[in-house]
C-alpha cells in the first residue's frame, strides 16, 4: 500500500522460490491489498492495516525519505 500511496500502479516482487512465492502472494498478500483498496473506495479512508502501519503517509517516514533523498541514499 505504501507503493500505491507513493503513486505506483505496478510493483514487481521477486523472491527465491518463484512458484511458491507467487502462491504465497496470491494467498496472503493480494487479498489484503484488494480489501484495503475496496475499503478506501467505499469509505475514503485507510483501513485497519494502514492505521497500524502508516508507512508512506506517516510524517516520520516522509522525513526519513526526504533526508535520504537529499543525502543521495535510496530510502
What report would you give on this structure?
By secondary structure, this protein is mainly alpha-helical. The protein has helices at residues 2-5, 18-43, 48-52, 59-71. Helix content is 64%, strand content 0%.
Task: State the gist of this model.
By secondary structure, the chain is mainly α.
Q: How many strand units?
A: 0
User: In angstroms, what is the radius of gyration?
Assistant: 15 Å
Helix-residue proportion: 55-70%
The helix tally amounts to: 4
What is the global morphology? flat
* H/E topology pattern: HHHH
Which labels suit this protein?
mainly alpha; 4 helices; flat
Describe the SSE topology.
Blueprint: H1 2-5, H2 18-43, H3 48-52, H4 59-71
